[in-house]
Design a protein that fits this description.
This protein is of the alpha+beta class. It has 15 helices and 18 strands. 35% of the residues lie in helices and 25% in strands. It binds zinc ion (ZN).
């Protein structure tokens, strides 16, 4: 099946005509129109290669406003007194049709400028994206060679079947050679009847940073895309193409927007907003919610409300999970709960519940709770306090009966640190005895 399609494309490709004089003439517009000048008044046009001379100093106004070359190009002047050679290259794509198929033909165009010689354009067709009436894509392309630092086309090779994102080798992620996104397009697109019927508009040709082939495939193969384009929701269409969504989860919402004359200008923000409304249990058929005057404000408000609810839920879940752990902790360390070590000022006692760990952790801004010290093997966690106020948190190893760490808020030592360590060491027997 696929082989049949591929062969058909190969046959059709052989009959394609060379670029028309207009398509060829347009090529000079795809490069920067620059003129390199010298202080002597010499201007070297990069569009035609001519060298023209002005009176020294008379270029001042042209540097501001641009220089008119006798070839007709309006040049931006750049000071480059020693430049003798310039090379530019770009991809140039032309959109055509053939027997109901849509084709994007891409040419590698090189512009060579050597001082004293007229500008030479070297134009080689390198790949063709063929889109069938059903939105299937077949790529024909020349061979190429590439590595991390180089890329070149083998112009003399034959057109063969190629694929997007074909890997060459190794660990380096190469860009997709056959993606026309970023190419310069001949502005007159030839579009198939079916694509026009499905809603193709000039507006789509101007969509930014998106592959035209992908837009064509989407519009030929997705009813939702067709509806969205006909409703004029181009940003939603763009979003569908970028995410390769042939089905739109919120198509019914789009229809309500359409009835209310509401345009979505930032689709990713909009769908995020609708997700949040759904989370909040709001009626997403009500235009009051889904057609906000200011999407950004509405989005922020909805998100703030949802964050508040999430936080409350999380806290509740946390509380539940703490309650579930209490029994285990009591069984593990309960026998130490009676210990109280004091020198009259400092009072040191084990944390007696997982809730204590949670509170100790949040008040002291350290990870005694998050890192689950309540179930750490051979670790007894104690809190040193003065008048009930937390000073440091102590970890004692129950195998070696030594202090592993004693830390104040944010893991810092306090002025009481040495006193706490010494008090603990003097009373370690109390723990050992249990
Ligand atoms: Zn010129």
């Amino acid at each position: 099946m696929r082989k049949g399609i591929n062969n058909k494309v190969k046959e059709m490709s052989k009959k394609l005509k060379p670029l028309s004089p207009d398509q060829l003439a347009y090529i000079k517009n795809i490069f920067d129109k620059k003129g390199y000048y010298k202080k002597s008044g010499e201007v070297w046009c990069q569009c035609c290669g001519r060298i023209e001379h002005q009176l020294p100093g008379s270029l001042d106004i042209d540097i501001e406003c641009g220089y008119q070359c006798s070839c007709g190009a309006h040049l931006t002047l750049v000071y480059a007194p020693r430049l003798n050679r310039m090379y530019d290259r770009a991809y140039y794509s032309v959109v055509q049709t053939c027997q109901g198929w849509q084709i994007i033909r891409t040419f590698n165009v090189e512009r060579n400028n050597t001082k004293g010689i007229l500008t030479q354009y070297d134009i080689n067709e390198v790949y063709q994206n063929w889109i069938s009436p059903d939105g299937e894509e077949v790529i024909l392309g020349k061979s190429y060679s590439r590595g991390v630092n180089y890329f070149f086309w083998k112009y003399n090779s034959d057109f063969s079947i190629r694929h997007h994102n074909a890997k060459s080798s190794g660990y380096y992620a190469f860009e997709d050679v056959f993606d026309t996104c970023g190419n310069y397009f001949y502005p007159k697109f030839c579009i198939t009847k079916k694509l026009r019927r499905n809603g193709w508009k000039k507006r789509i040709e101007k969509l930014p940073c998106v592959s035209m082939a992908e837009c064509m495939k989407m519009l030929l193969s997705s009813n939702h895309a067709e509806t969205v384009v006909k409703q004029g929701q181009y940003d939603v269409f763009l979003h569908m193409v970028r995410n390769k969504w042939k089905e739109l989860e919120y198509m019914n919402i789009l229809n309500i927007c359409h009835r209310n004359g509401y345009m979505i200008t930032d689709a990713s923000m909009y769908f995020d907003y609708i997700d949040t409304l759904n989370n909040l249990g709001k009626d997403v058929r009500n235009p009051k919610y889904i057609c906000p005057d200011n999407l950004y404000e509405a989005h922020d408000k909805a998100l703030a409300a949802w964050t508040k609810i999430r936080r409350a839920q999380e806290q509740l879940e946390e509380k539940k999970s703490i309650a579930e752990k209490e029994k285990d902790y009591k069984a593990l360390r309960g026998k130490y709960f009676g210990i109280l070590i004091t020198d009259g000022t400092l009072e040191i006692a084990p944390l007696k519940s997982v809730k204590d760990f949670f509170e100790e952790g949040s008040e002291m801004h350290h990870c005694v709770y998050q890192n689950k010290y309540y179930k750490k093997k051979d670790a007894l966690i104690l809190s040193a306090r003065i008048n009930g106020k937390r000073v440091e948190t102590i970890e004692v190893n129950l195998k070696t009966y030594s202090i592993v760490q004693s830390r104040g808020a944010c893991n810092k030592n306090t002025p009481y640190h040495d006193r706490i360590v010494s008090l603990m060491n003097r009373n370690m027997n109390l723990i050992k005895a249990i």
